Amino acid sequence: MKKTITDKELQKKLEILNYEKSELLVHKKHAEKYLKEIKDDLKKDNHNKSELLSHLKIAKDSLKLAKEGLKHNNDELSLINSSIKNIRNKKVEIMKFSKNEYILRNFSKIQHKKWELYIITRIIHFLNDPDIEFVCQQLLKTRDGKRYLADLCFPSLRLYYEIDEAQHGSDQHKIKDEHRQREIVDATNFIEKRICVFDKNNNDRNMKEINKEVDAFIDFIKKRKKQFISKGNFTPWDYETKFSPTPHLKRGYIDVKDNVVFSNHRDALRCFGYKGGHFQQAVWTIKGTNKEVWFPKLYKNNLWNNSLSDDFTKIIMKKNDNSKISPHIKKTHLKILINKKKYEWIVFAHYKDLLGQIVYKFLGEFHTLFEETDDYKVVLNRKKTRIYFKDCI
Question: Per-residue DSSP letters for 129-168?
Fold first, then answer.
């Protein structure tokens, strides 16, 4: 079986190549110096011309070998650096889907549900509006604080649609453990619309009745879009820039209500003045402030069992085994407990969207809640849902 080379192994090879390069540069410098001396001697001494010409050939061959060695070394360095970059990009970049692929994959998620597939595809086809974003099986937090998988969601219109099928019992939208890693949308101010596809005897309703009700919902969507546009609250769906920091930088702020997500740490950090390449650490400090940008997993993982309250206003950070936190974040934790140092975390939670792509969702600015923080947990309370970049840079 072919062994896959690791980042660490590539770094070791890179060190060796850089050392070899320094040696080759010294060799080239000496060869050039030797060649110059031979040429100078040829101009001064014609008596030993044959011997000097022999030395000239050796000097030229030596310089040629040094140059060829450097070229090969540079090619190797370029290849290694490219490999390292590819490995790191695989860790930080999401899979890239076109908008068409995204839409088709949405439908593939519901292909086993006959009525859901029929109704949702009818809505999207008859609506025929590429400016309206939609998501199938979107995880929501509703106004009653529950987490809920909505059949069809229109985030830009603050609207979701439920399709009640006869075979679906009370567990239709039960949140499983794997769903806790999914991107969640705050639907507190969303409108819910429903359609029931079965009658009181749990038999399928007439198709014409279903179509009439679905078409009425399509008209509702169109009217709602017009209302949002008239109030300046509608943002057209631009899938290609969905994860880009550029629109937010132009606007000057990010707001929780706009469902802000990024595909990697670097693009989120661009909003706060970061100029470097891909950044893989979980925390980045904004220079000259007590603010830190944090990319937590707000669900149980290898070491931590961090959680987000149902109302999105509180984060609790603790270890899986409920042991003391200090050994792992001792410096920060002691400052919180002893010095009462106020930390302000701008939080982008690590989630997966419905297609399995890693996204970092903006949840707001959270501050240390001293009265609830102790040796075993750090508790943070949300203070801001909108961040103006000028206040951070």
Answer: -TTS--EEEEEEE-TTS-EEEEEEEEGGGTEEEEEE-TT-
16 by DSSP, 3-state: which? helix
Task: Name the region of 174 (left: φ>0; alpha: ψ -120 to 50; beta: rest).
Answer: beta
- List, in sequence order, the alpha helices (H) in 93-143: 99-108, 114-127
Cα angle value 235/240/155 (rounded, 5°): 35
Q: Yes or no: say if 349 and 298 are a contact pair by the CB < 8 Å rule.
A: yes
- Matching residue, tokens 């490995």: 87
pTM above 0.90, yes or no: no
How far is residue 224's CA from residue 278's CA, in Å, rounded to a whole number?
40
Q: Which of 88, 108, 112, 128 is nearest to 278 (CA)?
A: 88
**Three-point CA angle 328, 331, 337, nearest 5°:** 100
Task: Please name the residues in contact with 290: beta carbons below 8 A apart, sequence gap of 6 or more.
Answer: 341, 342, 343, 344
Q: Is 86 helix (H, G, I), strand (E, B) or coil?
A: helix
Q: Which amino acid is at 37?
A: E
Q: Over the stretch 127-185, which tens digit does the pLDDT of each residue have?
A: 999 999 999 888 887 766 677 788 999 989 999 999 987 554 444 445 444 444 555 67
Distance CA 180, CA 191 (A): 23
Task: State in Å, rounded, how far the first CA of the chain is from the last one.
Answer: 51
